[in-house]
User: Fold this.
Amino acid sequence: MNTESGGNHAAEGNLEERLARGFAAELDRAEREYPGLRLPARDPAENEPIRRAWPRLVAVPVGIIAIVLVAIVGSPFLMPGAAPVAPAPGASGVAFGPDGIPTEVAGEHVYRATDRAAFASLPGSFLLGGRVTKPEFMPPCPMPMGKSQAEQQLVPYCYWLSIDGLAVAPMSNFDEPNDEIVVARVHVDDPLAAQCPIDVRAQCGAEIVVEFVVWTSSPPATASTPPGSPTPTAGANSASTAGTGPGASESVGPLPSIVPPPSGGTIGPSISAPSTPPAPATPPAPPAT
Amino acid sequence: MRDITATLDRDERSKATRSPGLAAATASAPQWVATLQDHGPLLLAAARTLTRDEAEAEDLVQITFERDLRAGPTIREPRAIRAWLLTVETREALRVVRRLRRTLRLDPVVHELPIGGPETSESLELDEALARLSRPIRAAIVLHHMVGLSVRETADALGVKEDTAKARLKTGLARLREYLDEY
Assistant:
């Protein structure tokens, strides 16, 4: 076609003719096929990403570098123990009252036995705190005669555990040592009460069912207390920060043991089998002298 | 092709809605589309020769039309229109990103040979010789020796100086002769 590119025209003539013939054939083919050619529909906006390809190619390494920098700079804060991390106030904190019984656990109010009128009509579960009392001698109980299964599980009939004198239902998941301060998640108006006879149904509904123990004044039997660490007992509330619970309360630094809720933390109203390991019923043997 | 025209018409309408002044400028868009369509076979043939990939060739023609439609009917002279279209198509074909994408394609590329051209063996030889050229040099050969653009138009289409275009043409012809002599 064109021969103006210079050079040896005679030598290139044959080649150029071949090129021209080749393209002429290609053009013929295109003219034949073009009318029936249906190019795929394409949104004009699809071309824009092609233009933005280079910024994207630049953005990817820049992003990677930024992530690496953030990881390097932030690693002292991300690695546990590498930097002091201020505890979230109230996240798992326990605020105590003057009598050593918690008034608030993890920001949730702890009711007392004396608040029965207040929590008697509470829907759902709530925290109840107080000192555990159980009988010194637990005699074998006679078979309950004429009592329904629901009544046997809800109404104490032989002997009972109590929190600050408030008896808890026999079906409670509760087996703490005597004379220990505990905070337990409890509920009233258990659905099982609907199966109680009509004459005791109100009593069944009023019984306190312990779901699980949230906090105890002594560490669990399996936990080891480091030597020299303060023992969180009722009288050891030496911290002087202002409490957050109702009444005059104090917050303490080292937290006593908080027993995690069994099986995921949320427990329905009807619990029949204890899932926390029972604490030893007998006190530890005195050291040999 | 009707699909792309409809898409582009819709795009132009949306552009005109956004910019009232643009509406007057694109008033003759249908005529411009017809003009572009007239050059469709030429663009398709050039794209096939240049890319040696049917799918990429069709894609190139489509993109060329889209870009030229966006540019608007500002070119009147037919030869200038042809050179402009080929320039857009060639520059798109030579884009680094497009070449990179093509390189990364895993499916085999099949280049069909035209039927009814020169002898089949000659077509095969020329096709294989062209395939061995680098894409910039092949583009120069296609635009100048096959499509018929002048050296200056070829240089403009390639975005290089005229001397560079001449050098590429000279190199291309030399290599083609060399490759064809091997057969």
User: Anything to note?
Assistant: The CA atoms of residues 144 and 150 of chain B lie 6 Å apart.
